[in-house]
Write a structure and sequence with these properties.
The protein is of the alpha/beta class. Helices cover about 20% and strands about 25% of the residues. The longest helix has 23 residues. The protein starts with 7 loop residues before the first strand and ends in a 16-residue tail after the last helix.
């Protein structure tokens, strides 16, 4: 074979995380095998890596859009394979998720090795829409959070987005959604300054006020907003939509059909409410930690098997009277609903919760638009705003060498679902947005009950 001088990497210097990454190698020897490695740091400055080996084509190139690796961190033809297949070192499971909350770009470094020697490198950025969106941190007495809106200043339909049981803000996800033509309020419920520390006794009047604030903002059009969240956040979104006629569309990923208990930081006390209104707790499915729960945790630790919590949530659903009292009154929702569940959810039975929501809507003769998406091979983090295209999927974590938590699903299935469900969510929200009034409304009736 004749050596070709000047191996090089061809990759866009900047691109958005939900776009393809058409990277290509050139100037290599036909038939040789090269190692391609990718490296990035998450928001906690933890280094994540992936690698794959490719056979160079006859024209001296490796084109990720036309060929998959011979072996490595991912299989098949996928221009973002090296991105979502990132892991932390040699451990089979990362100690934590790929942490990202701020809407700053992610910096990547790609290296090409031949016989162990680096022959080409390239750096590139993946952003969340910072080229078209501006973020404005809010200050009291406004809601705690960040407003993401178009740099052009053009008004757009309003969306509220918030986190699940981990708290904080999802500003990076809010920016990505705003880049699609929405004015998005990334609302902090708890876990940040000026908000409660844990998910307990969250006053829903705070959410009502945030909806009012967003509807009154000059960057918002229409007289209703959409809500987007996952897990405990999806539970809240359905509850707020049931209470507030100003809520239009709801995107609920891995939702609960019942109001779950509050979560005190660093505590196993699950006897307190998560949500209250005007000082009164909303009925919830209280739970307590029983000896078998402790045995399950210890058993997983001793046997070095992943801990799964889904059965505990199933047991809590056996008391029909308590479940009825704690069930979210989804039949009061006025706008379209999108429910997404992973069929392999090992955190809680989101698929069964979706079944119950569907049944309750049917029992009450609900005539609204319902779209249900079930993703095979996918666990709890089934969709945006937690599962973002091209970012490492959240399937399991290993806090220690002998203990891990399984949230269900495979990384490859999650990566595929993250992209597919993102586009489904955009289509769903787009359909709602077309119905939103193009003229801001100055006075609104129908405040929350």
């Amino acid at each position: 074979m004749t050596a070709v001088a000047g191996p090089r990497v061809e990759v866009p210097a900047e691109s958005r995380v939900d776009e393809a990454l058409p990277w290509r190698l050139a100037g290599l020897e036909a038939g040789e095998q090269v190692e391609v490695g990718l490296q990035a740091e998450d928001g906690d400055l933890v280094t994540w890596c992936s690698r794959a080996w490719f056979t160079v084509a006859e024209d001296g190139t490796v084109d990720a859009a036309r060929q998959g690796p011979d072996r490595g961190s991912y299989d098949g033809i996928d221009t973002t394979g090296l991105l979502w297949a990132l892991t932390t070192g040699e451990r089979s499971l990362p100690p934590a998720f790929f942490r990202k909350g701020r809407p700053t770009p992610i910096s990547y470094r790609l290296e090409v090795r031949r016989d162990g020697d680096v022959v080409a490198t390239a750096g590139f950025l993946r952003h969340f829409g910072s080229d078209t969106v501006v973020g404005e941190p809010l200050s009291l007495p406004d809601p705690v959070g960040t407003l993401m809106r178009a740099r052009t200043g053009a008004p757009a339909p309003g969306v509220l987005l918030w986190s699940g049981s981990d708290g904080g803000q999802l500003d990076h996800a809010a920016m990505l959604l705003a880049a699609q033509g929405y004015t998005v309020l990334s609302l902090a419920l708890f876990g940040v300054e000026d908000r409660p520390k844990g998910l307990e006794r969250i006053d829903l009047g705070y959410v009502d006020a945030a909806i009012t604030w967003l509807l009154d903002h000059e960057s918002t059009v229409g007289d209703e907003v959409a809500l987007v969240s996952l897990s405990r956040g999806a539970e809240l979104a359905l509850q707020v939509a049931a209470d507030d006629p100003r809520v239009g569309a709801v995107v609920a990923g891995a939702p609960s059909s019942v109001r779950q208990p509050g979560i005190k930081p660093n505590s196993m006390d699950f006897s307190l409410p998560a949500w209250e209104r005007d000082g009164e707790p909303l009925p919830f499915l209280a739970s307590s930690v029983k000896p078998r729960d402790w045995l399950g945790v210890m058993g997983a630790f001793v046997r070095r098997r992943p801990m799964r919590q889904v059965e505990g949530f199933r047991r809590r659903m056996r008391d029909a009277a308590l479940v009825q009292q704690a069930s979210i009154e989804v039949e009061r929702c006025r706008g379209p609903l999108m429910l997404l569940a992973g069929e392999e959810d090992q955190l809680w039975p989101s698929g069964e919760y979706v079944d119950r929501i569907e049944q309750r809507l049917a029992d009450h003769g609900w005539a609204g638009r319902l779209e249900v998406v079930r993703s095979p091979g996918v666990g709890h983090f089934v969709c945006f705003p937690y599962a973002l295209p091209s970012l490492p999927p959240m399937t399991a974590i290993a806090p220690s060498a002998s203990f891990s938590i399984d949230f269900g699903g495979s990384p490859a299935a999650h990566a595929a679902a993250a992209g597919a469900n993102w586009h489904r969510q955009l289509d769903f929200l787009g359909s709602w947005a077309h119905q939103v009034s193009p003229t801001p409304v100055t006075s609104r009736e129908g405040r929350p009950r």
